Amino acid sequence: MIELRDVTIMAGKFALEHVSFGIASGRYAVLMGRTGQGKTTILEAICGLRSIVSGKILIHDVDVSVWPPGERGIGYVPQDLALFPTMTVQQHLEFALRLRRTAPRLIADRVAELSDVLGISKLLQRRVQGLSGGEAQRVALGRALSFHPSVLLLDEPLSALDETTRLEMHAVLRRVKETTGVTMLHVTHSKADAEALADQRLVLEAGKIFESP
Prior knowledge:
By secondary structure, this protein is α/β, with parallel strands linked by helices. It is 34% helix and 27% strand. The model has no long low-confidence stretch (mean pLDDT 94). The strands form 2 sheets. It has a 6-stranded mixed beta sheet, sandwiched between helices. Strands 2-1-4-5 form a 4-stranded antiparallel beta sheet, with helices on one face.
């Protein structure tokens, strides 16, 4: 579950004021809105990369408004993916687990599980340089999911993909939802993505978020 209660966020001279919405546990929500409306700012506030001025951010009914990012249990895939060029695919999938000092056997099991779900088992020893757009997206998803987050945030994850790869990623994202039960919030400009993936559609317009049928 993700809930924002009367949240105000400042980003330089840009402000979002009194933003409220909720996403039930296990749902796939899509947030749409024109460029510059503040969609990424909302994602950054939820995962703790941007402080809020007032209001509350709750994850599964727990107020995490002042918690550091690493303690919120949130996976985040930024628009630029932020993959590490010197790391292999396997090292990306291991990264968050090693930070958490997870046992090596559990890391190996999780890497095998994720690479199977995401269809990247044959890529594990490759570096991310030279991967296709769809392959890189799958690696970024795997890194974000590796530590079993309760919430997954996706910032325009399919915007740079060709149509065939986009359709393949629709299937991957549906499989992620079905196999993990993670609560997902996906920012996109694409109505096709929303129609293919969303259980819940939200629209950000003039600083307010509305439910869309």
